[in-house]
Design brief:
single chain; 2 domains; four-stranded antiparallel beta sheet; three-stranded parallel beta sheet; 9 strands
Length: 238
């Protein structure tokens, strides 16, 4: 059994274990319960009512956070020709083709997001084992494989705070919604944007209750259970 530290135990006193919190109240408490000295990430955790083994019940997509994630996002782009020029003009940290593939094969991974044009995916596919396990592989469903003309928009969205969500093998989605230092309204609006995007991504094979349980926490702090009905209704009306 995990032994919790004194700070965690003190923070836990702010949380009623069985209570289902409405989103705004949860955001206010989670900020107070974050006890670490660094600026913790605030995370949303959802247990979904789908079967991750079924092809028609996969949940994956992206959400645009109106207030970003509170950190600098380093972007690399696999492109050539006009696409490379557009990506360079959009201030991507690194733009390349074969040279970028080779750089990553040699162990360089100093970036947060990779974007590619469709014509580059044949070359990028050989990096699957390196990028895939780190969640860095460009993917059309995540909005990171785009035509050359769309590169400036994609780079700008990623920088502003576009986050990817994806169902894991245990039918849970984990997604960051901001930093503890954000004010309550910004965290709340980011939370609602993520929930709305996930609801819109409901697959055709999903039956019954789509979001079964939800909780919010900082990286180190205790979790607060959310009222899923209230959360979903607020996201729809937002």
């Amino acid at each position: 059994m995990t032994t919790r530290g004194k700070k965690y135990k003190e923070a836990s006193k702010l949380v009623e274990g069985r209570k289902l919190y409405e989103p705004k109240e949860a955001v206010a408490i989670v900020k107070k319960a974050g006890y670490a000295k660094f600026d913790e990430t605030v995370e949303l955790h959802l247990r979904m009512g789908v079967d991750p083994r079924a092809a028609d019940q996969q949940v994956r997509g992206t959400a645009l956070l109106p207030h970003g994630l509170g950190k600098q996002v380093r972007v690399v782009v696999f492109a050539q020709g006009e696409g490379a020029k557009l990506a360079t003009d959009a201030k991507a940290e690194y733009v390349g083709a074969d040279d970028l593939v080779k750089k990553i094969e040699d162990g360089w991974l100093d970036f947060d997001v990779s974007i590619a044009t469709p014509d580059m995916m044949g070359k990028v596919s050989k990096l699957g084992k390196i990028l895939g396990r780190r969640g860095l592989m460009p993917n059309p469903k995540a909005g990171t494989v785009v035509p050359p003309a769309d590169l400036p928009r994609a780079i700008n969205e990623v920088r502003k705070g576009r986050v990817e969500f994806r169902l894991d093998r245990t039918a849970i989605i984990h997604v960051p919604i901001g930093k503890k230092s954000f004010d309550e309204e910004k965290l709340y609006e980011n939370l609602m944007s993520v929930v709305e995007a996930i609801n819109h991504s409901r697959p055709s094979g999903a039956k019954g209750q789509f979001i079964k349980t939800a909780s919010i926490s900082t990286s180190m702090g205790p979790g607060l259970r959310l009222d899923t009905q209230a959360m979903t209704e607020l996201a729809v009306s937002a």
